[in-house]
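Late entry, evening session. Most of the bench is empty. Finally got around to the prediction I had been postponing all week. Sequence below, unchanged from the version circulated by S.P.
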Amino acid sequence: MELTAEEVRVLGCLIEKEATTPDQYPLSTNALTNACNQKTSREPIVSYSEREVVEAMLLLRPAGLARTLTAGRAEKHRHVLDEALQLDRKELAVLAVMMLRGPQSSGELRTRTERAVGFESPEGVELVLGGLAARDEPLVRDLGRGSGQSQNRWGHLLGGEVSAGAQPMAAGGAAVAVGAEDAVPLGPTLTERVTSLEARIASLEEALGL
């Protein structure tokens, strides 16, 4: 699975808000955009337009990772990542924090998932991480310890493979390079994927005579 940075941010926000503000979930396009552009608990800070958020949803829906519900004139968005990948609440919470804040240690993940789920110890987080890493298609990777760090960091793989020196993704969908030899491309950008999707739709319409 290689999602763009925009898709990862949108999914992470939907997971977070479902757990922390259930009364306001599913989210309107405006609320989802605000969640993506939030200045706290986000790394990197982004400034997405509503159109960029909608374009991300246009890619997540056919991938079976999110849904848009229509209530009157309003559209509401929700994730179905748990259904698509068979994830429980603790696994979702851990993934969401990494999706919104980049690679984390088990201690950081424990602290930053408190509002969503409760882990009694960092070992509980590591058990969840171990399960996610041991899947046939791993969803996380142990990145080892960075300089001056006392705990190993873990990164999610929803945006593609990450390197041991990985930093949070930039808005364009590529990793921010720490060392040129360690940088690993994380797949096509949102614009490239939308363009490809539009081309496929146009081809289908032509074939159907629409």
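Two things to note before I forget:
Strands lie at 27-28, 66-71, 74-79, 104-105, 140-144, 153-156.
The helical segments are 5-20, 29-36, 50-60, 81-85, 89-101, 106-112, 122-133, 190-208.
Will write this up properly tomorrow.
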